[in-house]
Amino acid sequence: MLISEQLFLILSGNSGGSGDWAQRGIYGLRGAVLADLLLAGRLDLTPGRDPLIRVIDDAPTNNPVLDDALSHLPTDESIRISHAIGRGECSLKDTIAAHAAAEAAGSDSAPEGGPAPERGAGIVDRLIAVLKGECPATAADQVLLSILKGLGLGRVVLPGERTGLGWSGLYQRVKEITDTNAPGEPLRTMTDTLAALTIIVATVDDDR
C-alpha cells in the first residue's frame, strides 16, 4: 500500500481531531505521494530543507495515484518541494479515495456481508509499536511519522496515553527514528522536509 494511501486512511479515521484537519491533510497527502514517487525511483531531489525535485522517469506506473501525481509535475524543470506541496493538484484526495475504495471492493478479507477491517487503526497501531521500539521502522513509517510531526497532528493520531510520550517526547522520538533509520540521503532529505511541513504550510499561506 502506498504511503499516501496509508496517510489517507489515518486521516479518515481521525477526521474530527482538528478544526483545520482537512486543510492540513491535503498538504500531508501531497507530501506523502511525493515520497511514494521518490521511493518508486521517479523523482530526484537536492539536499536542503526545501529541496528542488525533478522528475527523472515519467513513464506510466499503472497506479492511478502515482500517475495522477506525475501528470501534475513538470518534466522539463525542477521545482521546490514547497511549491509542489502548497500548490499541488486538488484532485489528489479524491484519486486516493477512489483507489482505496476500489481496492477494498476487490478484497476478500472482509467477512461476507460485513464491513471491511479498519485498516487505518491498524496503521496507527503499527506506528505506536514503532514509537515504543517494539518493531523496526520501515521507510513508510518514517515518512508517516515525519508528516504527522510536521503538520502538528501527532498528538491527535498518536495520543500520549497510548505512546507513553508527552508532546516534546513524541516529537523527539520521531526525530530519533528518522535520523537513525532513514536509509539513504534522498529519503533522509525527504523526511527532514516533511517534518518541517508546518513551516512550508505557513509560507504557502502567507503567499496566497
Commentary on this structure:
The chain has helices at residues 3-12, 21-39, 64-71, 81-86, 92-105, 119-131, 139-150, 154-157, 160-163, 167-181, 185-194, 197-207, and strands spanning 43-45, 52-55, 79-80. The protein is mainly α and 208 residues long. The protein is built from twelve helices and three strands. α2 (21-39) crosses α3 (64-71), α2 runs antiparallel to α7 (139-150) and α2 (21-39) packs antiparallel against α11. Mean pLDDT is 82; it is low at 110-117. Strands 1-2-3 form a three-stranded antiparallel sheet. Helix content is 61%, strand content 4%. It is globular and about 45 Å long. It comes from Actinomyces denticolens. Its main location: Golgi. It holds the Pfam family GPP34. It is found in: Golgi apparatus membrane.
Brief synopsis:
The protein is mainly α and 208 residues long. It is built from twelve helices and three strands, in the order ααββαβααααααααα.
Shape: globular
Helix-residue proportion: 55-70%
User: Looking across the biggest beta sheet, what order are the strands in?
Assistant: 1-2-3
**Total beta strand runs:** 3
Instruction: State the order of secondary-structure elements, H for helix, E for strand.
Output: HHEEHEHHHHHHHHH
**Helical segment tally?**
12
Low-pLDDT runs of 5+ residues are 110-117
Helix/sheet category: mainly alpha
InterPro entries: GPP34-like, GPP34-like_sf
Organism: Actinomyces denticolens
Membrane topology: Peripheral membrane protein
Subcellular location: Golgi apparatus membrane
